[in-house]
Write a structure and sequence with these properties.
Blueprint: H1 34-46, E1 48-49, E2 52-53, E3 66-70, H2 76-88, E4 106-110, H3 111-118, E5 123-127, E6 132-136, H4 166-177, E7 185-188, H5 195-199, E8 203-204, E9 209-210, E10 253-256, H6 260-272, H7 274-282, H8 290-301
Organism: Ephemerocybe angulata
Pfam family, one: HNH_2
Protein name: HNH nuclease domain-containing protein
Length: about 325
């Protein structure tokens, strides 16, 4: 039987429920399976910046409008696709059997961006050269212009980071839903972070990493009156949305291609990521001797040979 929820004082704290009432703190047996709770908790603990859960695209922190978004869905057909990706080595062999239970298969988004992601309006591309997940407004939708070509708040070094290869599958679906958009898109050579990451001070410029912890003295401070429920207005010039006119080489932009070489690079980055290694460690028994465990770790976590180009979905 679940433990009783703790009492709390009024007024309620801003920007979230009282301690013990958060999504990952509710232990009621009626809230779903332990696997579903693990999915929710993994995302909620990862996509937190300056002490608040936020949309990885726009930074919105109003918990009422935040949603867990699956990269690969939860239908039977999607479960078949998930198993196929595991067999091909596109995702770690030790991921959960069902995509809806794997926190690495999800991101936190506001209602607006979750709808755009699920309806294949935009996609996210991992760029190995800069180790960032970049927002691509492939549909050329005016509401997403300011986000195009800029990195969302995902850290490939996190143990629960989405495998970069997963986003290739979503990208192919976006491209298929917009067959008349230019196949070759353009993004900055060195994509910057989304505007809110810079304007809110989420970026640790010394390490180029994202700040997770709440700033000192920010909780329930009566002198702080900033409404942080919605992202600040853009303070940096947005990237130009792609057109049929190719930018010159001097414009500081690169062609965003999807071919066998690009897929191979992303697969390599996927298998070398901390998320892949952590997933293998979590699903492996370490009951042997030190030497046996060392060999087991090397065999299972070591980067295997990348699949040949025939695994490139664009080549089919």
């Amino acid at each position: 039987m679940a433990a009783p929820l703790p009492t709390f004082q009024l007024p309620l704290p801003p920007n979230g429920p009282p301690p013990g009432y958060g999504y990952n703190e509710w232990e009621s047996d009626t809230t779903g399976s332990s696997a579903s709770k693990k999915f929710d908790a993994g995302i909620d603990n990862r996509d937190i910046f300056l002490g608040k859960r936020r949309c990885v695209v726009c930074g919105m922190s109003n918990f009422v409008t935040l949603h867990h978004c699956h990269i690969i869905g939860s239908t039977f057909e999607e479960s078949v696709a998930w198993s196929d990706l595991k067999a091909r080595g596109w995702i770690p062999p030790k991921v959960t059997d069902y995509p809806e239970h794997e926190p690495r298969n999800g991101v936190l988004m506001c209602a607006n961006h979750r709808a755009g992601f699920n309806e294949y309006v935009f996609f996210i591309r991992y760029v190995p050269e800069v180790q960032k997940y970049v927002f691509i407004n492939f549909s050329n939708h005016e509401d997403y212009e300011e986000f195009h070509g800029k990195a969302v708040a995902l850290d490939v070094g996190d143990r629960h980071a989405p495998p970069p290869a997963l986003f290739i599958i979503h990208e192919m679906r976006v491209r298929g839903n917009h067959p008349f958009e230019p196949i070759e898109q353009y993004v900055p050579d060195k994509p910057s972070w989304q505007d809110w990451i810079l304007s809110k001070g989420v970026l640790d410029t010394a390490s180029d990493s994202l700040k997770r912890d709440k700033p000192p003295g920010s909780e329930n401070d009566p002198h702080i009156t900033i409404d942080d429920s919605f992202p600040a207005l853009a303070t940096f010039a947005p990237s130009t949305v792609n057109t049929d006119d190719a930018p010159s080489s001097a414009s500081g932009q690169r062609k965003l291609e999807l071919n066998a070489d690009v897929v191979r690079d992303i697969l390599t980055a996927t298998r070398e990521s901390e998320s892949w290694k952590a997933c293998v460690r979590e699903g492996t028994s370490w009951e042997g001797t030190a030497d046996e465990n060392t060999k087991k770790y090397s065999d299972r976590v070591g980067v295997s040979e990348v699949s040949e180009p025939h695994d490139d979905p664009s080549a089919d």
